Amino acid sequence: MSPSEPAAGPTVKLGVSAPLSGRGAVLGREMAQAVRLAVEEAGASGLRVELVERDDRGEEQAGLAVARGFADDPAVLAVIGPYNSNVALPAAPLYSGARLALVGPIVSNPALTESGWDTMFRFTARDDDTAMAIADHLARALGKRRAVLVATATAYGRSMTGRFDGAFAAAGGVVLARHEVAEGETRFDALADALPADTDVVFYGGTYEGAPLLSALRRRGRPQLFAAGDGCWDRPNFLDPAGAAAEAGEGVLILSACPQPGEVPGAREMVARYERRFGPVLNYAVNAYDAAALTLAALNDAAAVATPDRDAVLAALRRAEWRGIAYPDPVRWDAKGDNRAAATALHVVRDGRFVQVALVRKT
Predict the structure, then answer these.
(1) SS3 for 355?
(2) pLDDT in the model for residue 3
(3) Which SUPFAM superfamilies would you find in this protein's record (predicted)?
């Protein structure tokens, strides 16, 4: 637990649900650390906020246990997270039943805001929006027309490739083959060898399997452009293990559900503060910080007129218009709880780092 230190005022709790151990711990810890930084920097306000970080391990059952714990603690007035859609989807009904605001900095599965849970606020772009952005760019800007799709068998992997499938067809493309691979799979030579000769792009939806898939494609002499969802906008789990393969052949095109840090005023400075405290930013620290800062503002807004409770925080979040550092436009929620300002960035890899080449805005 990490409290902010204002001079006076009531104490409330802000929860964080993230994978703090296990396979996704590096990125889960980054999310929690960014939220911690936002809480500490907001500590001069009149509301005392106690940060409660809980480890959901990126797993459904652990995420449900975290959700129950937060729901049962009346002092918890909002929760940031989870990091993973497979954790958020089963947990969201529990948060809704407890009237507990769930602000997702990163979770992208469209079902989270299509299921009627009015306590869900998605800060990032949805899979259907990001899939449309990258599909349009591939087909219209790059002239790619024949795709092979590969999905990791997870909620995120299936959602990302499924949405891309429809968006690519709408943009004039044709899907030649569809493959689904198990989590943890590392052997992709047979898949690479089976690639149709007229394939001009391989689209991957997933996370950890992206690097070994790309490496196999290049090793087996497949130079086609490798495109992927934001599960691969990730240095430790994609860029570093892929190594030279990321710049071989036609290279890669990787989307992210927020601009590269530095594109929006204030983001570069926040990254510098984060890195002085915690080390290098890996992917969505800016989103996590900004989502937390917005939530803290809503907590203070609710406390300004009465003793804050969950319903007051929900009302404050719904009316929020937040000029933050993650997106160029002010954050405003639509009726479903999606962020109207959410944007999709597209990146290539040059000299061993991601370089933004396009930004697709919703507003």
Answers:
(1) strand
(2) 46
(3) Periplasmic binding protein-like I (SSF53822)
In this prediction the pTM is: 0.92
Beta strands 174-181; 76-80: pairing state: unpaired
Displacement of CA 36 from its chain's centroid (Å)? 18
DSSP secondary structure, 95-151, as one string = HHHTT-EEEESS---THHHHS--TTEEE-S--HHHHHHHHHHIIIIIS---EEEEEE
Does CATH place domain 127-256+344-361 in 3.40.50.2300?
Answer: yes
pLDDT at 283 exceeding the cut of 90 = no
Architecture field, domain 11-125+263-332: 3-Layer(aba) Sandwich (3.40)
DSSP 8-state symbol, 238: I
Fold: same for 11-125+263-332 and 127-256+344-361 = yes
Q: How many CA atoms lie within 13 A of 74 on its CB side?
A: 3
Closest listed residue to residue 254, CA positions, set 194, 205, 298: 205
| Contact partners, residue 316, CB within 8 Å, separation at least 6 | 298, 299, 301, 302
| 91-95, 161-165, 255-259, 303-307: the lowest-pLDDT one | 303-307
Q: Are 24 and 85 in contact (CB under 8 A)?
A: no
- What is the per-residue pLDDT for 2? 46
User: What's the rounded Cα separation, in Å, for the pair 181 and 163?
Assistant: 17
